Amino acid sequence: MQGLLLINKPVGWTSFDVVNYIRKIVAAEEGKKPKNVKVGHTGTLDPLATGLLVVLVGKEYTRRAAEWSKLDKTYEVTMRLGETSTTGDDEGAKTTVSDRVPMCEELEAALEKWTGDIMQTPPVYSAMKVGGVRAYKLARAGKAVVLEPRPARVYSSGLSAYDYPAVQFTSRVSSGTYIRALVEDIGKALGTGAYMAGLRRTTVGSFDISAALEVQGITATNITQNLLTF
């Protein structure tokens, strides 16, 4: 089997969990040991996030991962106002910042402020490397982590729903943009604090979640039927 496979990653699964699950199915179909089957992906989704994961199946495609790793992406974001989180998401320890309820116009202005070419500091709990070590590993070990701001591009952000303290918006961004950092910056602009309470990736380049397979229903047959080749 060779090609790209679009998967709808469920909450609680790591991207590696998905890759490992598919690898075992492909290995069984090809009569190989899993360690002898090449399967990868083009961009990690956090365990709490859901949505589109582009999986690479076969040596021919895993060696071409760079071709699809820098594509623009679209996310449906749920942001919670009034608090910050040590991890930038729902997993971290929360600190109350403000109980002020912003108007919709304020939210739209904050989203607009963080649209375009921006500089953002990656979250401490991220996969960025510091001295060759993942930042989140250093943070979990209680070590100080200093990450430098880096350029990102937010093509658009549109407010979808607002029921304080929950805000839902959709953002189309460049590869390498950290949605948790974007949410924290929006929270600072509002003066309320904010953290990312939910995240769903719906597009990667021209690939869309509507064409993705559900993990729980994957078989060797529908892998073969849904592999994309380029």
The helix content, as a percent range, equals 10-25%
Cα-based radius of gyration, to the nearest Å: 19 Å
Shape: globular
Q: Any idea what the CATH architecture of the largest domain is? A: 2-Layer Sandwich
Biggest sheet record: 10 strands, mixed
Measured between the Cα atoms of the first and last residue, the distance is: 13 Å
Mean pLDDT: 93
CATH superfamily of the largest domain: Pseudouridine synthase
Question: Spans of 5+ residues with little confidence (pLDDT < 50)?
Answer: none
N-to-C order of helices and strands: EHEEHEEEHEEEHEEHEEEH
Please give the number of β-strands. Answer: 14
What's the CATH class label of the largest domain?
Alpha Beta
User: What's the number of helices?
Assistant: 6
The number of domains is 2
Q: What structural class do you assign from the helix and strand content?
A: alpha+beta
Strand percentage lies at: 25-35%
CATH topology of the largest domain: Pseudouridine synthase
Notable characteristics:
230 residues, Pseudouridine synthase, two-stranded antiparallel sheet, 14 strands
Structure notes:
The protein is α+β, with helices and mostly antiparallel strands and 230 residues long. It has 2 domains: 3-69 and 206-226, Pseudouridine synthase (2-Layer Sandwich); 73-204, Pseudouridine synthase. It has 6 helices and 14 strands. It has helices spanning 15-30, 59-62, 104-113, 135-140, 179-190, 220-226; strands spanning 3-9, 39-41, 50-57, 73-81, 83-85, 94-96, 116-120, 129-130, 133-134, 150-163, 166-173, 194-204, 207-208, 213-214. Strands 1, 2, 3, 4, 7, 10, 11, 12, 13 and 14 form a 10-stranded mixed beta sheet that branches. Strand 12 (194-204) and strand 13 (207-208) form a beta hairpin. Helix 3 packs across helix 5 (179-190). The longest helix has 16 residues, at 15-30. It is globular. The protein starts with a strand and ends with a helix. The model has no long low-confidence stretch (mean pLDDT 93).
